[in-house]
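To the wet lab folks,

You asked to see what we're planning to order before we commit. Fair enough. Below is the target structure as tokens, and below that is the sequence we designed to fit it. If anything looks off to you, flag it before the synthesis order goes out.
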């Protein structure tokens, strides 16, 4: 990790001097729990390190296999409030030594990681065992299946593998109880933005105010002729919410990369001479003009969140109106989360 990356990580996770609303809300939110599961060497720990600990994907090649349950409290460095429990692949849920009720009770979602480039039989058997035990203990639990390491496969192969896994799961659970289980499937890789988008969708299901946030986006977009807007968690680059239009992967990647650009430039040019200060604060804002006539516009929302908008360049002629409406959007976000406190 470079000195710049280390400075960025330290500055973003410092909370005592940060501005913005939400301190009491963040402290009082109930933290959902996500379990990260799969067979050995499927890439579970790599996902966790890349998304939430800013580890380079290439560095994950040197990670050792998880030998015990590792609990990560994401709330320490991010507006997103939840815990992730990384389970070693060798845990046998049929063993009398494992208290499955205690593990799955109070859990909101299970992310089950399947290596797309490996034989799926063992992983699907493990998924079946896990899902049966989890559903017995907690019927409301969600199953998020990450078909991982898909970067080395052709597009046709990816879709075929995803279809095969879906069909196999449907065959394994053909009784009435299976219809009550909630499965979602994602093609992921730590070498592109797909893992961040997949985690974004998982986290959004844990936010009860999601419909209100989407309505705020839609109102902002229609008022300012914005084509797409994302509310990002700055640390993890997971998008907390977006508007009601479909998410285009290329647009998401541009907006996500813009956060890195803004933080990196702030670390170089925005710090005090003594090295103190914050890379992201209430004055953080940026405009990037693209060659196709579109503009990326980033504005600070609070100490953890930023809104990134995609609009046509001529829309910036009314920047004052845009800034005013983003201020209203910021107030709306504050009210949504205060209302949950």
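Sequence we intend to order:
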């Amino acid at each position: 990790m470079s000195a710049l990356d280390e400075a960025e990580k330290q500055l973003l996770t410092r909370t005592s001097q940060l501005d913005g609303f939400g301190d009491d809300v963040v402290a009082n939110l109930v933290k959902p729990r996500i379990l990260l599961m799969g067979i050995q060497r499927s890439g579970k720990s790599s996902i966790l390190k890349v998304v939430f600990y800013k580890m380079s994907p290439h560095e994950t090649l040197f990670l050792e296999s998880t030998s015990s349950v590792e609990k990560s409290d994401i709330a320490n460095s991010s507006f997103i409030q939840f815990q992730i429990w990384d389970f070693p692949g060798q845990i046998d849920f049929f063993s009398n030594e494992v208290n499955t009720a205690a593990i799955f009770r109070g859990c909101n979602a299970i992310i089950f990681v399947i290596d797309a480039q490996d034989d799926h039989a063992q992983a699907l058997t493990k998924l079946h065992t896990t899902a049966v035990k989890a559903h017995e203990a907690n019927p409301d639990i969600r199953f998020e299946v990450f078909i991982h390491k898909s970067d080395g496969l052709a597009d046709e192969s990816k879709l075929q593998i995803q279809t095969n896994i879906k069909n196999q799961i449907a065959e394994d659970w053909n009784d009435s109880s299976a219809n009550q289980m909630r499965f979602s499937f994602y093609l992921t890789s730590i070498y592109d933005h797909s893992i961040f988008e997949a985690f974004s969708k998982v986290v959004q299901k844990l936010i009860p105010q999601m419909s209100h946030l989407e309505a705020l986006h839609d109102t902002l977009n229609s008022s300012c002729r914005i084509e797409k807007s994302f509310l990002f968690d700055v640390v993890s680059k997971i998008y907390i919410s977006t508007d009601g239009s479909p998410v285009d992967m290329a647009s998401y990647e541009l907006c996500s990369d813009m956060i890195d650009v803004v933080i990196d430039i702030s670390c170089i040019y925005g710090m005090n001479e003594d090295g103190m200060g914050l890379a992201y604060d209430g004055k953080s804002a940026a405009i990037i003009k693209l060659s196709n006539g579109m503009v990326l516009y980033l504005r600070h929302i609070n100490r953890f969140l930023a809104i990134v908008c995609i609009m046509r360049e001529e829309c910036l002629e009314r920047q004052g109106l845009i800034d005013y409406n983003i201020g209203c959007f910021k107030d709306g976000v504050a009210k949504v989360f205060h209302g949950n406190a």
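Structural context that might help your review: Confidence is low (pLDDT under 50) at residues 1-29. The longest helix spans residues 249-269.

Thanks,
Computational group
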